[in-house]
Amino acid sequence: MSVSPQHRESEGDTEVAAEQRYLTVLYRHLDAERELATRRLHETLSQTGGTPQARTERDVATTTFSDRLAQLNSVEQGLCFGRLDFHDDPAGEETAYIGRLGLFDTEDDYRPLLVDWRAPVARPFYLATAASPDGVRRRRHIRSLSRRVTAVDDEILDLREADQGQDLGLAGEAALLAALERRRTGEMSDIVATIQAEQDGIIRASLPGVLVVQGGPGTGKTAVALHRAAYLLYTHRRQLTTRGVLVVGPNDTFLRYIGQVLPSLGETGVLLATVGELYPGVRANGLELPRPAEVKGRIAMVEVLADAVRDRQRVPEPVVEIEVEREILRLDRKTCTEARTRARRSRRPHNQARRLFVDDVLDALTRQTARRLGEDLLDPRDLDDIRAELAADENVAAALHELWPLIGPERLLGELLSDESLLRTAAGVRFTEPELAGLLRDPRAPFTPADVPLLDELAELLGEDDTESRAEAVRREREERAYAEGVLDVMEQDEEIIDEEVLRVGDVLDAELLAERQQRRSDLTAAQRAARDRTWTFGHVIVDEAQELSEMDWRLLMRRCPSRSMTLVGDVAQTGAEGGASSWAGALGPYVADRWRLRELTVNYRTPAEIMELAGQALAEVDPALDAPTSVRSTGLAPVQRDLAMAALPTVLREVAAAEVGAVGGGTVAVVCPQGMCRELRGTLADATTRSEAGEPNPAVLDVAGVKGLEFDSVVLVAPGEIVDGSPRGWNDLYVALTRATQRLTVLHTGPRPPALSGPGDRPGQDGSAAASR
Ligand SMILES: Nc1ncnc2c1ncn2[C@@H]1O[C@H](COP(=O)(O)OP(=O)(O)OP(=O)(O)O)[C@@H](O)[C@H]1O
């Protein structure tokens, strides 16, 4: 059907008005649900007293209503974004509206008003095509701002109508392009309205097993990973809310950048963390150079740490003398070696095996003392007393501490990295001299993120010294039981005035059970509990920028997920960490052999074609066999490259940054530079720096590691030559830096251009004069 522009406009207006009416109804239901949840929450909170069971039930209800309210609040923006019209649907439901959560008409037999995007019914919204319409006649994207419909975009999924001029490109192309053109705020948005078919397949892939998602820059890996978390929580709610889902990202800035996506999808129970945050009780905020971090990430550290622990299990050379009550007792090498062998053979962790060692040594000292006192005069009770006295003796304790100390991971690692002789003994010939020297540090230095997997490894090797925590657990249990007994007493007294025949509370509920209920009442989410517990194992683990993980990082993460239900997203062409992965098979082989699935993403939604052409030249330097993803859009703006003298950089950068901030009209700008230049350039731009909507500095001055995974409307790349020369993975780094912009890219060369960046059309100049135009 051909329509005149005026006709089309009025037809569009009618459709917008119709959808507005429907949207208004949906918001009315949303408001009603909110009111209901608020009312129930208030009612629950205002109740006091009652039986312990009633209190428990109230706590559960409070959590349920608060969660529901948070979910209802989170879907306010873009509540409904799609509509499917089906051909003769046998169920008689010819239309389905798709949105951020499910809403039902409670007064009309729970008729679905809005279908959750994760429900199977919604799937054709993402998958149907004209060639394979899956019963769908028309897919409509509904765009809205606040509660107002701003546009509708239709696709008729019918090849005959398509022949009549319908555009059958990407699913919801107009809505997709509108989303991609939006200026960036510094916080990632969800893509729930415009998920593409290849992404949908990954989001809804089955839960078990290791799924690797490989894709070039801007292909939506992060977006897909987060939507997969939301999908899995919806589909496997019971299983995953108990064990929790962990999402691992490369650094804090990145976690802040993605932090709003899951809440905007109504999911709050996910733990977002860097590997450096996965050791409760340690804030690993020390800085470290890439080289020592790489050495710490090597798998050889497993043996170094095991040797460092063994090094703490000593025997006397040849004898140690202990003064007890003015007598000298002797511990010889043979006795201690036998005790050590027995303790080591137990294969228990160091702190737990210590009990065996201590037992044997105390036995030997008891025998010695008994011999001295005259064995024939002593009965077993006397021997027990002697042993107990020896165990309590300070000098014996000191000798035992020398031979087999109780030691925690933090102390052992701190001492190992700050004591050259301990480090040399443990490292053996595994590292070169410069590598060893790089590992040594000041004893007061804070832990770094690369230390965390080492602490975790040590925690496994050392085991908890659980003497204290067991005593504490027993004490707590006693207290809880005493409290529960008190509660039961009070309740039974109350009941005495009631009929004797009535079942008493104590008949159905004993103190132990009541105490246990009290514990289960804890209203922390699984994610919150997991964050405090090193030994927590998650129901599913998602890792973003997974190519950056070191071998030691992988060991830690695998420990957190023994079920190996994992989604790992990344791009081996973007690996910047020296100890990061060059291939997925290499990284995963030790844990799952070849039992992992690979899915690829091929379309770049971020970087315009013009910028990708330049980035492709850097990618060819990484590996000529790699293909850059295809850009979904072009802007008509070629990147600008300028050559200038280093001395001119401050002036030129100030000019360029100001111009770019103006050009993106409130959007985000990043200056990306070699690590060593960041501080100086921040100073250069200090006067002109404001804050983005997300509260980040704008322009942000960041090195490549700092922009990994992020995107900006405009990027000013400084000294790419130095970035290439600055690391063994310099070309990977340059590729990352070149692919951060959603609209505009300016490259400022302060030295010779890397050959791959000089292409046709450039006019290299000198000293800061404009060299190439857009
Ligand atoms: N289907 C989609 N609809 C709308 N926007 C999308 C879609 N897929 C991806 N995007 C957008 O494209 C941009 C890049 O996505 P994302 O950051 O997830 O890519 P990535 O593959 O993780 O990139 P990198 O490897 O560079 O970190 C984001 O702004 C994201 O919101």
TrEMBL record:
GO terms for cellular component: cytosol. One of its GO terms (molecular function) is hydrolase activity. Keywords: ATP-binding, Helicase, Hydrolase, Nucleotide-binding. InterPro entries: (+)RNA_virus_helicase_core_dom, DNA_helicase_UvrD/REP, P-loop_NTPase, UvrD-like_ATP-bd. Residues 194-608 form the UvrD-like helicase ATP-binding domain. Residues 749-774 are annotated as: Disordered. ATP binds at G215, G216, P217, G218, T219, G220, K221, T222. One of its GO terms (biological process) is recombinational repair. The keyword Translocase does not apply. This is Helicase. It comes from Amycolatopsis antarctica. The lineage of its organism: Bacteria, Bacillati, Actinomycetota, Actinomycetes, Pseudonocardiales.
